Amino acid sequence: MATLSCSLSLTSLNFQHQTTKSLQIQPNLQFLLAKPQSISFRSRRALSVASVATADSSAATVRKLYVGNIPRTVTNDELYKIFEEHGNVEKAEVMYDKYKERSRRFGFVTMKTIEDANAAAEKLNGTEVGGRKIVVNITQKPLAISDLSLVQAEESAFVDSPHKVYVGNLAKTVTTDILKRFFSEKGNVLGAKVSRVPGTSKSSGYGFVSFGSEEDVEAAISALNNAVLEGQKIRVNKA
User: What is the percent of the chain with per-residue pLDDT over 70, rounded to a whole number?
Assistant: First the structure.
């Protein structure tokens, strides 16, 4: 009987110990179960904030205008005043060469609304400022289906060649046709293309020109490196 009583007592103590341990662990389990829900909420909140930021960024993009071929004498204030006549301006900035400390003949103007940006682009594009015809357009906008087809057609029409040059610092106004005509004066051009920001009509600021021979490549680099195209000095070297 004593042995049986002792055994029962030990069993009872073990049960109490396991029960107490289980109760101590339970809050921790509840915490661990609750933690993923807390993280999930924060993640959803972060994604929501990111979505708003992306939307704001896109809205700013379609309000931003590229202004090209402006006289070197035009200042930020003068650029602001030119556009102020056609809508509410948020910011106007002329781009300067940090080494030569002079205007690069283009700038950017951000309007306060998309409507103001469209109106300013329509009214000012092609007008004269200081004796120069300026170019004004939205810096970046999604391509319409017809525009996308055109860009794809330009890409597929490019004739590649081992004899090719890279052309950098292209003005936003330079098209594939302009680039091809410009280089055709110096050699047998097989193809030319202006690189685009994926999914948009915006120029990436560089392009490629292919030739029929290495001699044409050398001639193009010698004659056209640092030449001015659409108001900007271009860089030409082997691709």
Answer: 66
- In 3D space, the residue among 159, 154, 153 whose CA is nearest the CA of residue 190 turns out to be 159
Q: Give the separation between CA 178 and CA 100, rounded to whole angstroms.
A: 27
Q: Residue 95 is encoded by which pair of tokens?
A: 């781009």
Task: Please give the span between the terminal C-alpha atoms of the chain, in angstroms, as a whole number.
Answer: 98
Q: With CA atoms as reference, report the closest residue to 228 among 167, 177, 176, 184.
A: 167
Q: What is the pTM of this model?
A: 0.41
The two structure tokens encoding residue 132: 């120069």
CB atoms within 10 A of CB 60: 13
Strands 64-68 and 235-238, by their bridges, are unpaired
Ranges of H-type helices in 62-113: 76-84
Assess contact for 90 and 111: CB atoms under 8 A. Answer: yes
- Give the separation between CA 73 and CA 184, rounded to whole angstroms: 33
Distance of CA 191 to the CA centre of its chain: 26
The Cα–Cα gap between 121 and 87 comes to: 10
pLDDT digits (tens, 9 = 90+) for 3-61: 444 444 444 445 444 444 444 444 444 434 444 444 444 444 444 444 444 444 446 67
Strands 235-238 and 132-133: unpaired
Residue 135 token pair: 């170019």
